[in-house]
Amino acid sequence: MESLLHVKFKLNGKEVEVEVPPNMTLLDMLRRKLGVTSVKKGCEVGECGACTVLLNGKPVNSCLVLAPKVNGKEVITVEGLLEDGKLSPIQEAFIEEMAIQCGYCTPGFILITKALLDENKNPSIDEIKEALSGNLCRCTGYVHIIRAVRKAAEKISKGSL
Ligand code: FES
Ligand code: FES
After folding, report:
1. Ligand index nearest the alpha carbon of residue 109
2. What class, spelled out in words, does domain 82-159 have in CATH?
3. Which CATH number fits domain 5-77: 3.10.20.30, 3.40.640.10, 1.10.10.200, 2.40.160.20?
4. pLDDT value at position 159?
5. Does residue 46 register a pLDDT over 80?
6. pTM of the model
7. Cα–Cα distance, 159 to 161 (Å, whole number)
8. What is the dihedral of CA 92, 57, 80, 104, to 10 degrees?
């Protein structure tokens, strides 16, 4: 019988505990064990960014992280950005700027944007392009996504005045 490891971590602010095979990825643990299907499975080799989550506040490709490695840590998925049940300024900006078509890449882009704006409240277009360079979108052509990131930065800076 396959041995299982016990993993205890914080997911979007709540403690969760789960038993996983030692070689299961964080991506599969979130989707298959915890039902968090907003975390998308794309390439599974760290090239598309669809599986991006925040691990202790930093963006990671969850397809490249083994699930037992998050023991004792904090994971944020796009659900964790809601503020009092409402969409965050980043989520609103993506909708308003029509930065979503099929939506498959969107949770990853929103989380990478959160990581960027946590570190740099007023990124230039080049800084946005650099931050988003590990995330692929097959639909939008990126222009709307970049506009959404700028708009999110403006919304956040207005909200903090
Ligand atoms: S599925 Fe993880 S980077 Fe593509
Ligand atoms: S909106 Fe379809 S892949 Fe980005």
Report:
1. 2
2. mainly alpha
3. 3.10.20.30
4. 81
5. yes
6. 0.96
7. 6
8. 60
